[in-house]
Specification:
Elements: H1 3-11, H2 17-39, H3 46-59, H4 61-69, H5 74-83, H6 88-109, H7 113-131
Helix pairs in contact: 2-3, 3-4, 4-5, 6-7
Length: 144
Amino acid sequence: MKKSEEQQRRFRLPLDGIGRVGFIVLGFVMLLLGIIGAFLPVMPTTIFLILAAWCFGRSSPRLEAWMLAHPQFGPVLRDWRAHGAIPRRAKIMACGGMALGYLLFWLGARPGSWLAAFVALIMIACAAYVVTRPERKGAAQPAE
């Protein structure tokens, strides 16, 4: 058994029926949000798919295997799990979505300077995290 598999087994607690069903439901909610995000430019896709795969990994090996084997978003999920890699297109979409989201927040809410600066700092930190993730050569394109 590989070390990463040992670590995963160590951190996975056995789920009872209610916990298992809860993670399955949460997985489907994340999957639905990811699908919606594929069609709405200001909503992310990849992070919701990563969360859906994680939820299914905790509750249903069959659903997790389905997501990881999916022809469109499976390669992105496998690259994330194996290397923490985010394809360049997903990085561009994520940072563009954050910038657009901040612009809409700023124009729509007309926040005070402290709130605007606080939200901008959070967005910049999130964008920095996304941009600093590795890009795999030949990594699959995201479902966005």
